[in-house]
Amino acid sequence: EGNKLVINGGNVGKSKKVYAGDIFGDGDAIGNEITITDGKIGGDGTFISIYGTEFNKGSATGNKVNISGGEFGEWVTIHGALLGADYATAGDADTYIGENEVNITGGTFDYVQYIYGGDAGSYEAKLVENNKVNIKDVTIKGKTSSNVSTIYGGHATDVEVKGNGVTIENATFTSVEVNKYYIHSWDSQYTTMLYPMSGAGIALYELDGDTYKLVDTAVTVAGNVSFDGLRRDTSYALVEFSSPEPNMEQHMAHGPN
């Protein structure tokens, strides 16, 4: 009960299982929690299972896996709580799995085999209830069309499953292109020709509450610069903060130098 495992950055390579709580016999798994922030988990074909708790008899309530950012390799399986295979049998029908969660915000997964809030697997349980998976702004890549991710709030075989849920809120993104031009004063008497300006500094600001915060800066090349990965539900501002001297030799062919 109440065990916590925190992984902040770093590289978890060939580990087979990562869990906050584990019961190899009878007992209740309550409030165990894993928090993973950034870093790299798995890769190179390594199969890694991440559990808030794994248990074999009893019940599991309020266990969590919290993931924020990071890079996850192939064959990653995530369970808020899992009824394991070591001791569980068809006679353990008093097992309860409820209120367990997997919360993932940000990050990239090469391939996820399963994500379960609470999972009884192929073993009997009394009830799998109110387990949740919440995913926001996450990229999950499938290796092939038949090798895609399976995501359940609660999962079981021949067991009552109710009140479980999956929430996926992946923001859509866009990009913006800035075009910086100047005019030649002599040419402008005769034409509306615009000349692209290289070397202009452009700053991108994001609205944060009542103020704008600096997100990125870039310099125009041949009059152009672009900013990618902008959320469609966010307000931005573009500000030119520096301009080079224009190329005064660039003008209409018959004008004076």
Write up what this structure looks like.
The chain is mostly beta strands and 257 residues long. It has strands at 4-8, 11-12, 17-22, 26-30, 33-37, 40-41, 48-55, 57-61, 64-68, 71-72, 76-83, 96-98, 101-105, 108-109, 112-119, 127-129, 132-136, 139-140, 150-155, 161-162, 165-169, 173-179, 181-182, 195-196, 201-208, 211-219, 224-231, 236-242. A six-stranded parallel beta sheet has the order 1-5-9-13-17-21, with no helix packed on it. It starts with a strand and ends in a 15-residue tail after the last strand. The relative contact order is 0.11.
Give a brief rundown of this model.
The chain has 257 residues and is mainly β.
Distinctive features:
0% helix; mainly beta; six-stranded parallel sheet; 257 residues; five-stranded parallel sheet
How would the blueprint of this fold be written?
Elements: E1 4-8, E2 11-12, E3 17-22, E4 26-30, E5 33-37, E6 40-41, E7 48-55, E8 57-61, E9 64-68, E10 71-72, E11 76-83, E12 96-98, E13 101-105, E14 108-109, E15 112-119, E16 127-129, E17 132-136, E18 139-140, E19 150-155, E20 161-162, E21 165-169, E22 173-179, E23 181-182, E24 195-196, E25 201-208, E26 211-219, E27 224-231, E28 236-242
Parallel strand pairs: 1-5, 2-6, 3-7, 4-8, 5-9, 6-10, 7-11, 8-12, 9-13, 10-14, 11-15, 12-16, 13-17, 14-18, 15-19, 16-20, 17-21
Antiparallel strand pairs: 22-27, 23-24, 25-26, 25-28
